[in-house]
Amino acid sequence: MFLLYDIGLFLAMPVLLTVFFFRGLRKGIVRRGLRERLGFYNPDRLALLKERPVIWVHAVSVGETRAAVPLLKALRKEYPQRALVLTTVTETGQATAQKIAEIDLCLYFPFDFSRVVERALDQIRPSLILIVETEIWPNLVRLARRRNIPVALVNGRLSDRSFPRYKMALWAVRVVLDQFKAFCMQSAQDAQRVEMLGAPPEKIVVTGNLKFDLQVEAAGKGEKGRFQEEFRLPAGVPLWVCGSTHEGEEEALLRVFARLKATWPELILVLVPRHPNRCRSVAEMIRSHGFSCRLRSETNPSSPLLAPGGILLIDTMGDLVKLYSLADMVFVGGSLTPVGGHNLLEASAVGKPVLFGPHMNNFKEITRLVLNAQGGVCVAGEKDLENNLDRLLRDESLRCHMGSNGYQLLEKNQGATRKTMAVVKRLLVP
Length: 430
Known about the structure:
CATH architecture of the largest domain: 3-Layer(aba) Sandwich
Structural class: alpha/beta
Shape: globular
Number of helices: 19
CATH class of the largest domain: Alpha Beta
Helix content: 40-55%
Distance between the termini: 31 Å
Strand content: 5-15%
Number of domains: 2
């Protein structure tokens, strides 16, 4: 089975290399990204590990990387003598990972060829591998087990979309899952699904969702003022932040913004596309709707304050939580179009009311909890979004109440990091 898998990857290699080359056409990214994906790491960078025992955490992209932060903090606190290596697949995941203070080294994840994985394991020399959410790499898991390196799935989930796909190759998936040492699943449903795919039940633990353990506090008055200065946003005007937006959503959001301005002329819109490389086309779209916009990358301390009623377009990484803390209302993208949604809890963590569309398939459990706690609103479309925004703009007490409900939801559901660390400690026992 693993030989056939390697042959399939080899046949797909021209396509893989082309995709990763064009996705990484930025200075310094193409060369390092491709080399590291082939398992060739700069010895000077590996020297940062200083011959210490290594815990290797893999998170494919931005969402998984952010979810892993509470666990990375706990690992650093519990095992200060060990080196933490974090790998990602995407460039945006790398950009997010590089800002996490707790890690020692951030690398691109190697292609899952047997020889490439062998090369990566030879150089990184992990004593434990933790894979975040639903990244099941057959050769990595198999070759790690051959070297007696325990591999665990943490914050594991099997969405309505991925579960049927895995079931189609049940015979192969079962062989791979048997190589894992532990499965730390987000919910009882996820635990049931991974068992149906062939994971041994004695290896499965329901630990909860690490995203509830986000250690983010609402910005105080001093922090809020500093963030307003950083983004050159005026005080005392309503602010609507739309985070992690995708193609097909910005145009709808601009139409809603245009209609709201008839009643709320000072309303400022902040657009944060999920992929910053789309910002040029989004800026053109904004101008085609008759608006001007300011790019975050062009904002500096000498820039005038953004005029009330203006639009700020974020073409950088790492600013989302700061902007959420300044917002009066938050909209989370990937939900008006059938992308599957993004994490609602980052807005709840800073006490903000959160709105989102109907396509939240990747976050079903979180969505259910947020709605039950009355910390957010699911909107059916543009008109429903407009009506709910208008209602929130008119009622400050409602905004505060919804934001408080979301924050209390986070506090109530915390604990996944502690439960996951209990599994980690068991796996690291000599």
